[in-house]
Amino acid sequence: MELPVAELASAHGLCLAVCVAADVPALAAPAGLDAALDGLHPAERMAAARLAPARCRDWVAGRAALRAALRRLDPDLDAGPIDSDDRGAPRLPPGWVGSISHKRGIAVALADRDRGWTIGIDVEHDAPPRLDIGRRVLTPGEAETLARLDAAARGLAVTMHFALKEAIYKAIDPHLRRYVGFGEVAVAPAPDGTVRVDSALALTVEAAWSRAGGFLVCTARARR
Asked: What is the pTM of this model?
């Protein structure tokens, strides 16, 4: 049986969501963990078996979503096992780029043909963070802008800034291959889902955001 997936709006590739947990809000119809495992490469199933249960659930959901996206983009593609590179990102076949994000049994994957851009994705609950992470996430300019909002709106904005920067850092990591601090990139999301990205990095960076099923989904792409 084909694994249930949901296609999400994305400006930077094909974005699919997979849910392997029945007890959480879902972006896609819930699928059992066994069903998601069945669609993986044997080497991936072996890798999953070595993980702790919670990590295994998320890892399997992410690989299942990424494989579903690649199959939809090219049904004849033989992707082989999708392992991780030395930076923890999924290692895709030549000619393809992709990224994964997961949240407690829900995973989203972004995939596209290699057109000279690297891509990144992040998914977060569309809610203020449980702890105020604004001081760690925001640049001084961003903090000043968000300080004009009431507490609830500021909390949501902090979550969005965090998610956007996480997606951006995944997109830029193949170029820089180093830790990038939250203060090295500033974002200004607009209501229409577009984002202004400012940084001193020698890269062209684009980002976008959308909401779906109680989640915030942010994507980005980068090139030199």
From this structure: 0.95
